[in-house]
Amino acid sequence: MLYDAAEEPASLTPAEVREAYEAQLRAVVTDLGVETVAADADVDLDTVAALADGPVPHLRVADAASILALDDARPDADSIVLELRDHLLMAMTTGVVDVDAIASNVDLDLTGQEVQQALEGRTAMTLEQLAAVQRYLAVRNDR
User: Residue 117 is part of which domain span?
Assistant: First the structure.
């Protein structure tokens, strides 16, 4: 479900967390094929092909959820995204972290407002951004 791709995200770099997400996605692409995934998930063919070959840090979370949802063992894309948001918000609550703290402690060049908009789904969030936020929250909560 993306957020559970890395067992211990606090022990990884943001790039390694993102790579764990991509490994989940790549498994779906390997099972179903690039063309099928692109068509069924409604994700650009070139993006899916790039994912099959290696890192795609700017892949949007919504697209990643659409790809994961093609796996019959996973819920639909909307449920994946909602569960991811719930997980992040719970981690923020547990760590007593606000969006300004996230913005100032991750290397994303985002304001607190932009982080909030991404977490709420009002703007697109990339896997790179998700990885940085998830890792920061994991480190904060492991203290």
Answer: 1-143
Candidates 136, 141, 122; CA nearest to 62 is 122
Contact call for residues 48 and 67 (beta carbons, < 8 A): yes
Helix, strand, coil % in the chain, rounded to nearest 5: 70, 0, 30
What is residue 60's three-state secondary structure?
strand
Q: How many Cα atoms sit within 13 Å of 98 on the Cβ side?
A: 4
- 10-residue mean pLDDT profile of the chain (143 residues): values are 91 96 97 98 97 94 98 96 96 95 95 96 96 96 85
The pTM for the full model equals 0.94
Please tell me the distance from the alpha carbon of residue 29 to that of residue 21, in angstroms, as a whole number.
Answer: 13
Contacts of 79 (CB under 8 A, 6+ apart): none
Q: Is 30 helix (H, G, I), strand (E, B) or coil?
A: helix
Query: Which residues fall within 8 angstroms of residue 17, CB to CB, at 6 or more apart?
Result: 5, 6, 9, 131, 132, 134, 135
